[in-house]
Amino acid sequence: HALQVLLIFAKEDNQSDGFWWACDRAGYRCNIARTPESALECFLDKHQEIIVIDHRNSRYFDAEDICRTIRATKPSEHTVILAVVPRTSTDQEETSVLPLLNAGFNRQFMENSSITACYNELVQIEHGEVRSQFKLRACNAVFTALDHCQEAIEITSEDHVIQYVNPAFERMMGYHKGELIGKELTELPKSDKNCADLLDTINTFIKKGKEWQGVYYARRKSGDSIQQHVKITPVIGQGGKIRHFVSLKRLHCTNENNKQVSYFLHVIIFIAFKSHSFKCKNRRKDSTDKSITSQSSDAPSLQTRRYSSMARIHSMTIEAPITKVINIINAAQENSPITVAEALDRVLEILRTTELYSPQLGTKDEDPHTSDLVGGLMTDGLRRLSGNEYVFSKNMNLSHSHLSVPNTINDVPPCIAQLLDNEESWDFNIFELEAVTNKRPLVYLGLKVFARFGVSEFLNCSEAMLRAWLQVIEANYHSSNSYHNSTHAADVLHATAFFLGKERVKGSLDHLDEVAALIAATIHDVDHPGRTNSFLCNAGSELAVLYNDTAVLESHHTALAFQLTAKDSKCNIFKNIDRNHYRTLRQAIIDMVLATEMTKHFEHVNKFVNSINKPMASEETSSHSEGSDCECTANIKNFPDNQTLIKRMMIKCADVANPCRPLELCIEWAGRISEEYFAQTDEEKRQGLPVVMPVFDRNTCSIPKSQISFIDYFITDMFDAWDAFAHLPVLMQHLANNYKHWKTLDELKCKGLRLPSEN
């Protein structure tokens, strides 16, 4: 097919015209993009083989940033990117090409608008790098074929070091690929059932360049011996020497034992869950999530090796990945023993009917507290009752108190300023700030935190405008709510700022991400009515109808926040930033607030574990260099999808960090959320609505049991994963202490927040 070229030039000039006409002369198909956004969109649509980026003037866009963004996408693996650089004068020293290479460019082109010069450059690229990339693509196709081959295949170097094994080999031998690659064959256990001189006979054949085939006993990882029919072929390479050995193996007998059957099932389920985590974003149909979906965060699973990306290069199809998995299993059933076929029937039933990311609660003796929490937080309503319209009062014109709002941060009253001196500590007492500010902690903490992170500088707005915006947002939190009020918002803002200060988080995110996270934390529960999504859906509220019973409150919080911001130019903190920056910032804020909605809790946590924790653990175990941590965070920064996962996880943890606060703060928050749930249950009974969380009846509820269930079901795994990334020993110690507190109360049959003797 005709070669495709993408020109990225902000303005049309002689240079862009030179490349355009050069493409025409060479018979290449050419597209031109003027902005970074249109460039990425065009590339993801067309997958051009050559990209030419104007690197002569940074006034219009950052060429290196565009290059990095494109390189972060899967299709760019085989694309050649050329930087057009300004011509240097004869007395100027030529600059190094290394920064360009580090940004992802393959080569540079000195500014020359001659059509012939441009033509020569493009033709040289085609005959050099592009043709090499075509060969690499062919290699990927070969590896894909090998990975789907039914025979077990092992490729070793001339020194018998294992360099590749296919999935069929893994299934047959019981090893993971990561346990084998890089090891010498002599390091693996041998079966004692072979003739004493068999290995010598095989080596004599293959060292002479001859093929050997015969029956051989191999020892599986489990220790049992299996009889194989083996064919070993030497591969002659450079210099006429043997460079590799390819071994094809199949079971010599037809009956598989029970262990092999169960292992086969394990592999099928592995594939199913791996495929379920497939990502299809921005039409990148060939981008897959390469990890096993798992809720576990234990060390062995974090180090599980992932299949080579080369084996999945041709996954470009509109067929849903889960459908592919079901088709694979159906095909496998045809030639399987009856026991395997029946077991696969059960696998298919699970795959077709179950939400794969959510753990299933047992039906017998299940904990009612856990069941109610799941029902109340992870569903959007039980059933619709007609005629029950729940309308909550807006809090638009709250008259707070006589306390004056400061004109600048320097005008903050001394008692508040003294408290805020400690705001960078995790043990900061938000309730003391609530008391001393007359329930207006968000404005004061917001001013301090936003100043520390340079938010007004990034937004190009005055501190006065930022203050006015914080006032408007805080005024729209309901102070009548026992939990979802501006103190909770300030608490989440504090936690978010604390997380942003952790080295690995800081190194993984950009300034825009930090600003988006702080704003998202500030607005994430604005105008919360003190009732759950399930309640609003059951009551047929205006908001539930407006948002189709889906992420009702979270959608409302973001929409209202942007409406309030745009309503008055005095508090429109976004009005001075570039439109593209605003769009990116807005999208990041919306994404983070929506991530606080609990129905996708396990999906967010699992994606974080699979895409961040596991690859990072794998890198850390395989790398002993001092700079490995920097490399990890640098790699994350190159992948916007990973940055999104980090931001989601960060705000999710900040939103429910109460069990990780010092005990006294944890107890206060537990009392407040319980009171809000009690009030909801009271209202559900009054209105004749379904009672979403029956255990939260103020007359019978055990608060310790509810806290234990919440920590067990939602908190522990999530904070284990976040701690593995951000390193949060203080939080994890508080969590352990608080859990012990609730357990002690529960064992003593105490239903309150403290022991009676402590009240």
UniProtKB/TrEMBL annotation:
Q: Which residues form the PAS domain?
A: 145-188
DNA damage is among the record's keywords: no
- Active-site residues are H484 (proton donor)
- The domain of life is Eukaryota
Q: Give the cofactor binding note.
A: Binds 2 divalent metal cations per subunit. Site 1 may preferentially bind zinc ions, while site 2 has a preference for magnesium and/or manganese ions.
Binding, Zn(2+) 2: D525
The record ties this protein, via InterPro entries, to: HD/PDEase_dom (IPR003607), PAS (IPR000014), PAS-like_dom_sf (IPR035965), PDE8-like_REC_N (IPR057304), PDEase (IPR023088), PDEase_catalytic_dom (IPR002073), PDEase_catalytic_dom_sf (IPR036971), PDEase_CS (IPR023174)
Task: Could you list this entry's UniProt keywords, alphabetically sorted.
Answer: cAMP, Hydrolase, Metal-binding, Phosphoprotein
**Record GO terms (molecular function):** 3',5'-cyclic-AMP phosphodiesterase activity; metal ion binding
Location of region: Disordered:
284-306
* Compositionally biased spans, kind Polar residues: 290-306
EC number(s): the record gives 3.1.4.-
The record's Gene Ontology biological-process terms are: cAMP catabolic process; signal transduction
Where's the PDEase domain?
408-749
Cited PROSITE patterns: PAS, PDEASE_I_1, PDEASE_I_2
User: Which residues are involved in binding AMP?
Assistant: H484, N485, S486, T487, H488, D525, D655, Q707
Say which enzyme class the record assigns.
Answer: hydrolase
Reactions performed catalytically: 3',5'-cyclic AMP + H2O = AMP + H(+)
Q: Pathway it acts in?
A: Purine metabolism; 3',5'-cyclic AMP degradation; AMP from 3',5'-cyclic AMP: step 1/1
Q: What does this protein do?
A: Hydrolyzes the second messenger cAMP, which is a key regulator of many important physiological processes. May be involved in specific signaling in the thyroid gland.
Task: Please state which protein family the record places this protein in.
Answer: Belongs to the cyclic nucleotide phosphodiesterase family. PDE8 subfamily.
Q: What is this protein called?
A: Phosphodiesterase
Give the organism, scientific name.
Answer: Pygoscelis adeliae (Adelie penguin)
